[in-house]
Amino acid sequence: MSKKIAILGGGESGIGTAILAKKNGYEIFLSDKGKIKEKYKEVLRNIEIDWEDQQHTEARIFDADVVMKSPGIPDTAPMIVQLKKEGIPVISEIEFASWFSEVPVIGITGSNGKTTVTSLVQHLLQQGGVNSGMGGNIGNSYAKLVAEETHDWHVLEISSFQLDGIVKFRPHIAVLTNITPDHLDRYDYNLENYIASKFRIVENQTENDFFIYDADDKIITGWLEKNPVRSKKLPFSLEITIENGAYIKDENIVVTINNTKFTMPTSELALQGKHNAKNAMAAATVSQLLRIRKQTIRESMSNFQGVEHRLEKVLKINNVLYINDSKATNVNATYYALESMESETVWILGGVDKGNVYDDLLPLVNEKVKAIVCLGVDNNKIKASFGNIVENIVETTSMSEAVQMAYRLAEKGDNVLLSPACASFDLFENYEDRGRQFKEAVRNL
């Protein structure tokens, strides 16, 4: 008798789960309360499984042996609460995929930097001749990777929402870039819940696994003092000397693992800025664990192209540089962006507030920002936070309007920075859509 799986959500993770479940003989029903994109419907028709959108047929969902829910559905949704009450397991796509794969996983999570570190690790492995596949929260879903490709390693970007639904999922190498308040709307506005969620990445690790983390992050080190982890710890730091792990000495990155040392001048890194030095240390530590040649690591870290929508230089117009940092969906990410600005900046921000506190940005805004262009449905909090230090705050309701307004406010030598510090769901599909609209609007100036 085949097992029954109900899949809630017809996006990347839902479709990946359907492909993998089909391959493993499950009876599948996929249901999405919203509209499923045409490209995904095409896949569902091709693999011939039952699906529906714009509704949930509860009888069929509650008939399942296991339910995979998309990361976008909160645990507090009435149907999820009811499923759990009835004893039907509700898991995430990364948990489901892990049941069918023996390939070791490098799992990367954190409030910021995880996409950059994931992309950099994959770049390093590929340059080093390692057969690795990248996915998770970036590119293809983990389930699709497992179903359709053959690799020796999987490099996964993993969000806290994906970690919320794990049971046995265990990365051989776990990376935690940092923890700052984010997505608190999903965690009862309780930071402790969010921290616990991020640390689930190490909960199934054993003494044979590795945990790479930021030793300068007080939230991380505070949690580790109270909660021992079984895996081998390899911290990285800008502030202290690390015996086993990575640190900066005389403007060189130094990575030491079991008395093997790797060094590289920070000036040679393709991505500059303090936060990128940390991203580089995390990725170099992974590469050292996989014994990639030191020369290859150096070359790869100096020729890495960076990530789309993350401090991406778009164009210079009338000597004004337009920078797309649409991926900055929280305050901490925007902090890094503003910190790296070397000229007067017209800052475009706003969107769906996830419980943002803007206090940390005030000194940087005071020093670097000459005007603010709000891009969101409700901008009251932004105006209240920065009204005293930025004279010029304007409101707009579309990307093209925001870019035109920034164009008027910027003068020769200035930057125009899109770094929203908010989620994008009020005016855009997602941060990629927001970033692409920004680039298009800039090119149309």
TrEMBL record:
This is UDP-N-acetylmuramoylalanine--D-glutamate ligase. It is an enzyme of class 6 (ligase). Belongs to the MurCDEF family. It catalyses: UDP-N-acetyl-alpha-D-muramoyl-L-alanine + D-glutamate + ATP = UDP-N-acetyl-alpha-D-muramoyl-L-alanyl-D-glutamate + ADP + phosphate + H(+). Residues 108-286 form the Mur ligase central domain. The lineage of its organism: Bacteria, Pseudomonadati, Bacteroidota, Flavobacteriia, Flavobacteriales. Cell wall formation. Catalyzes the addition of glutamate to the nucleotide precursor UDP-N-acetylmuramoyl-L-alanine (UMA). Pfam families: Mur_ligase_C, Mur_ligase_M, MurD_N. Residues 309-422 form the Mur ligase C-terminal domain. GO terms for biological process: cell division; cell wall organization; peptidoglycan biosynthetic process; regulation of cell shape. Keywords: ATP-binding, Cell cycle, Cell division, Cell shape, Cell wall biogenesis/degradation, Cytoplasm, Ligase, Nucleotide-binding, Peptidoglycan synthesis. Pathway: Cell wall biogenesis; peptidoglycan biosynthesis. GO terms for cellular component: cytoplasm. ATP binds at G110, S111, N112, G113, K114, T115, T116. The gene is murD.
